[in-house]
Every structure is written in C-alpha cells, then in structure tokens.
C-alpha cells in the first residue's frame, strides 16, 4: 500500500463513511485506458499473432466490445467512466457546449464564470482586490477514485481525461486530456520560418507562424542568426478583467538561433537555456520562465522543446506549445499539487503536461509531414512509457491505479488516410497521399503493437492476483465525408440566413433568429431555438416534442447524393437517453453518424457553409464522433467476466464492487466482476 | 585571481569532505557554525561595540515612543525619523565588519558550492559544452577552435560556431569517470573536466577567466593570454543533499541562514552585541 494504512483505520473508527471498509489484504486493480482502441482492429491483430500480450490477457480472462457513450466523444466517454453516470448526470455532453444567450460555442470543460472579481489599475497593472469565481471543472458527480480513497484504498490516477481544471481530491491524480498549455489553449505550436507556409484552401493555420530573417551578423555572406519570440501565458495583469487576450497580450520569451556556417547545426537560446540541435533533431525539454510581474516577483515556469526541421538552405524551426514545468507548475495539474512534481522527480525531468500533446495541428497545417509527426509522437510515447514504469513501481497489492495511453486515438485520427486498418478493401481515403502511403500504411498497426508491448510490461510487473483491465473509450472508423449540418438545416428550412447571406456564423449576426427553429453546435448536438432559453428563441416549449420527432425523421431520411447512403444512423432525444440532475443542459437532439460520415469542423463551431456535404480531404481522416454502435470500445480483463454487453459505466461499478463499495443510485452501471 | 583560487582550492580540498562527498551534512553543519563564530569574532574585534549598543538602545527608545504616543502625530513623526536615523547609524557601524568578513565568508561558501552543489552527469546524458573566445585577446576565430575527445565521450552533433565567437558541442558520455576534454584555440590548449557517473564528488561546471572565476574556482583559470575566455558545461545536475536545500541557491540560503542562526545563538557566549 502506498499510503498510510492507519488513515483507513482512522476513517473506519470515526465512522465517517457509510460505505464498506476495504480489506487490507485483497487484490488490487490496474486499469489501462487506451483511448480509441478498436475491437475489430484488435481482434484482427490478435488473430494474426501481432498482439501476443493482449491475446494472452484475453485468453486468461476476457475480450469483448465495451459500449461507449452517446455521443462517443472522449470527454463524454471518460466522464461516464469517471463518474459512472451518463451526461445527464455529469454534465459533459460534447467537446463543445453553447451559450444559449449568444449562440457562441463554449468549452465543456469549465463551468461558467460569472464574476471575474474586482480589480484596481495601478501603474498599468490590474491588481486583484476581491477574488472572483474560481474556474472550476464542469464535470459533476463523484469520481470513483474519491470513493475508493475514502474507503482506504491507495489510488493513483495518471493522465485522466477531463480532469482539468483539477477538482479537489485527496487521491493522487494527474490531469490528462483537456489540460491546457501555458497560453491557456489546447496547444499552439510556434513555427519560425523564412517562408510563409501555404495553408490548405479552407484551412486556417493552427500554429503561430513567425516570419523570420536569417541575419548575417558576422558579414561573411552566410546567414547565421535568427531572432524570434515565444509566447507564454496571457499577460493577465495588463488585461482588463474578463477580456480575452489579443495577439499581443501574451508574455513572451526571446528565442535566438545561431546557425553554424559550415554544417546544418545550431544552438538555440530561449531565456537562460541553450541547446545544440542538428537539422532534423529535437532538443530536450528547455526551461523557460515568463515574468508576470517585474523583478521576478511572479515568474511562471514552463518547458518547451524545439525541432529543427530545416536550418539550411531554408529555415523552419518548430517550438512545441509551452507546457507547464512539471516540477513547478504555475497552475494545479494534479492532486495533491505536488504529485506532478513527485512524478517529475521520479522521471528525473520534465514531461508533457499538455493534455493532448501529439502535434496534430502541425500535421493538419502541413508544416509537419508524417515523419515529423511520428518523430514527435515518439517523444510523447517515451514520456508515457517512462511514466507507466513509475506507476508500476509504485503499485502494491491492493492498490488501484488508472493509467491513460493516447498512443492510438490521435494516430488513428491522423494516419487512417494511409490505409484503412479496419476495412482494407475499401477505396482509398479522399485524403490518401500516394507518395507517403506505402511508408505509413501500417503505422496504426505499429501503434497497436506498441500498446501490446506495454501491456506485456504491465502484466509482468503486477502482483499476480491483480485485476488488470484494458479498456478503451471508443473505437474508430474512417471519416471520408464531412457533413455541414448547419447547412443542411438551412437547406431544409430549419435555419434561416439574414437577407443577402447564404453562409456565415451562428453567433456573428448572419442568422435570422426570428425564423430559425434549430441549429447545430458541437460535434453531435442539435438545439432548438427555444423561447426563454435561447437569446432570440422562437420555438415554444410545448412544440418541442413534435419538432424533435419531425427533425429526427428528416435527418434520418437525409441521403448522400454521391454514395446513395444515409449519413445519419440514429437521432436521439437528449431527454430520452440521459438521466440525472443536469438534463436541462442536454442537447435537444444527438446526431449519430454512420461510419465514413461526421460533422465538419465548420459546422461544429457554428458555421453555415455553401456545401452541405463534401469529401474529407483533411489529414484528420479517422474518426469516432458517430453513432455509438458504430464505434464500440474494447474491454479486456485478466479474469473471465460474469456478464457481457458491458459499457463504460460498468467498469466504474466494477471498481466500486471490487473494493466492496455500495453502488450509489445515480451510478448507471453494474459490476461485471467482484474479487 | 588565479593564485587566490589555487591557494584556497588547495586548502579547502584538504579540509572539506572529511567523511567523503556522500556525507555532506558534516560540512554543511560545521562550516556555517564556524562562519557564524568567525563573524562574531570579527564583529567583536573591528566594530564599535559601544556604538552599536548605543544605536540599538536609541532605536528601541524611539520605537517605544512611537508606540506610547501613537495618538500624537507631532511626537510620532520625529520619533520615527530618529529611529530610522539610528538604524542607518547601526548599519554604518556594521560596514567595517562586513567588509572584513565578505571575502572569507564568500570563499567558504564558494568552496562548499564547488564541493557539494553538483552531481556528476549520468552515463548517456547529452551534454552541451560551450567555449567563449576572449575578445580582448583576439587572434583566433571560432573556426580555429577544435575539441579532442577522450575515449568514452562522443560527439552527438557537429560543433556550432556562432557569429559572436562562441563554439558549442553536444556530447554524450558513454562511460563513467572524470573525462578530460581538450580544447584547441589556435596555438593555445585548455582542458575541461567532464564528470560522469560514479560516486558523489566535486564537480566543476565552469572554467573561466572572467570575474566568475571567483565563484567557480575548481579548475585553474585560463592563462591571461589564452584566447579562450571560458569553457562551460550547460547541463548541470544538482547533487542531492538529503534534508539540506540542494544546488547553488540552496547551499547559499542554507549557509547564510545557518550562520546567522549560529551567530544569534552564540553572541552572548562570545560577549558580542550585534
């Protein structure tokens, strides 16, 4: 046991918990959460002998599909697992929610902040006088780790999705997916270049592109020095309270690159740190601090690593999103606060603290090619692999540990276009790139095999009677056709544009709300424009039931003229499929796409485009934002299951039951195993 | 500077780490206490003890005046001004002992840092070594600077020669030991020790002829005519010091804190007013 057993005994003696006490001599549980692992692909690899460790696990225990959430989006699915509830209970319905008053998309990760606090402006600085609302996690419900910790179980949770902002907990947790970079976003890289990259038509570059000049400081006719800046956190002391930062409202650090005259190698200086890097290489993590107040009175510590894509003859240098310094994070990313530091000590250095560190943006932008992307993913894998070893070294009999692996999900999103691992006979993906496909066609399979290797390590190191659970939140399918759902709503009379407009944004005055009955925001959500709920609602509450039925029927009848297929497999009413205290926030309809189809990025953010449907030529080529039955996850256990047909909340229930805890009524699942 | 460093380093190499570098607690307790006692003796010998006693007394009197007559601003303001004035006088009385102490105390601190602040790099670690040329000497360009590597240390990337006259190498040490890296700059040759693996020991991270040589005395100062101004190892690992704060800043904070504490605890025994 990792923490003092006395604590458990004291809690029991105090009688402060109505739940059962954990036997101090019982097998523990180790849950490996593999985002995006698909049962069909895994079954094939097992059958072909390419996943021997997972095959052995299935042989010893079980392997079956695991029902995912509706919609099957990672924040929703992992919240189901964390709380044992569906979105009606935990309140996370989609990656994106909407502000009904303004029709603007908002993050589903954080609760609404109404009071930013009171500030006084002194010498150009906004100084807080009265604290405002804390930025809190939007997820409701009790995480299973809090229940187990209260029962005296030594719990550690690594890289758990949807746990940033970090809710208070006595258990040791490290936030994963959803944890921001130092800018406060989900990861903005910097691209220093002497030539502006050409964006794919219709695609806005996600990176911060800095056009630089290679200066010839020593006048030898060869350019030798590049100067740039690296953006850190917003300069909050200079920003009006509640204001969003503009381009120039960030704290910065200077970056200087000195290039050798003879060889493509350079020394990069950022802040006080320096590193030598040859063309095609990555630097190690480099510390960088940003002074929020003068004289170092508030220095915010981050880490960054660079990739020298090209030093000569052109200049292309990548800087990662600035991650929090794991040994001194300026914001809480763990519970207790020093757990993140404890891990940095154990790993003898920094690690990726950003929630989804795989650099998909650079690959989408075209600043990275597949090889660049895969080299970066390798760094993320090394981090995760080392942290997994730490978690195993800290695990003792009776403990409960969850460890999250991102090895498969984002790689399926980005690399599916090179060869469909699920439907090999299908026609090439619209984003197929012939020149790189042969090299990368088996990349996804390689990632599965990497995970298989990790599972082998876990099995070898756990105490023999430990329950090992390998689970995924959803599976995967190809994403070949983009549906612009807001455009479909416009074309079918549910959404009306202002006079003279055929395209635009929901929240930018382009829509005639007095004639609009429904709109789409988020990856699977449709809302009606309800009186008293939406800012300019026109639909009466009494009419909702009929409209739901009507719109669902029309959406199900929608046919893709190119293929003759129906893109939408199911449409559910939020009221029918969700349960709990937060039903009022539920989407009116949840759209479940068939394989190959999915919401376009534009429609997700509330854009109305000209086209209703188009080929997906983006490198984001695999997807799971579909109907739940199209993308089930996997469940492998080291012991045979008592029941089949399980879903994510059943894993939660099993964790409760494994440690003898009473299932609360709001928990949707049922245990599939007990000790 | 070179002679001073040579002598003090020889002296402290002989007397520091009597229990070995793996047991830093002995020196980290002993030397701050000795520093505190030395400070007391210096203050007693060179300061105006009567003046210090008088100044402290006057400060107390005027602070008491402020407290007692806090409702009477005509009394409070002059009393505060006098308290501040006697404070300045108190500080002035301490200038001479501080000037006397600054060199020996800093020397002790620097030697403690040299012996205990850094751990050897791990076998396989990447290491960046930087040579800076001395503009005042001149005659050698960055292109003329080369590096000889001993067995057990390999080059990971070609050297970078910058427009500012700096040369940087990324190296990797494959075996443990105190490796001697030899830098050629024109006709001059300078060596730098790279400590890798093995037990806790004195680790040198910078060899320089600048003012920083006083703070990093472990290796000899390059000759004044050498075109090399400094050779530094950028990758540094703080040595673990158990309950004591680690690294340069940690040892500095500990040394001053513990010296002050020792001085306060022992001042009456030594009959010193501070």
Would you kindly provide a written description of the structure presented here, covering whatever features stand out?
The complex is a heterodimer of chains A (675) and B (274). Chain A is an alpha+beta fold. In chain A, 24% of the residues lie in helices and 24% in strands. In chain A, the strands form 9 sheets. An 8-stranded mixed β-sheet of chain A has the order 2-33-22-1-21-7-8-20, with helices on both faces. Chain A has a 4-stranded mixed β-sheet with strand order 10-9-18-17, with no helix packed on it. A 4-stranded antiparallel β-sheet of chain A has the order 11-12-13-14, with no helix packed on it. In chain A, a hairpin with a 2-residue loop joins β5 (117-122) and β6 (125-131). In chain A, α3 crosses α12 and α4 (74-83) packs parallel to α17 (648-658). Residues 4-19 of chain A have low confidence and may be disordered. In chain B, 44% of the residues lie in helices and 22% in strands. Chain B has 5 helices and 10 strands, in the order ααααββββββββββα. Chain B has helices at 2-15, 25-46, 49-68, 73-116, 247-266, and strands at 118-119, 126-133, 145-148, 153-161, 166-173, 177-185, 188-196, 206-208, 228-233, 237-238. In chain B, a hairpin with a 2-residue loop joins β6 (177-185) and β7 (188-196). In chain B, α1 (2-15) crosses α4, α2 (25-46) packs across α4 (73-116) and α3 (49-68) crosses α4. Chain B is elongated, with a radius of gyration of 25 Å. The two termini of chain B are 32 Å apart. The A-B interface holds A 216-218, 224-225, 258-263, 265-267, 273-278, 281, 284 and B 126, 128, 130, 143, 156-164, 166, 168-170, 234.
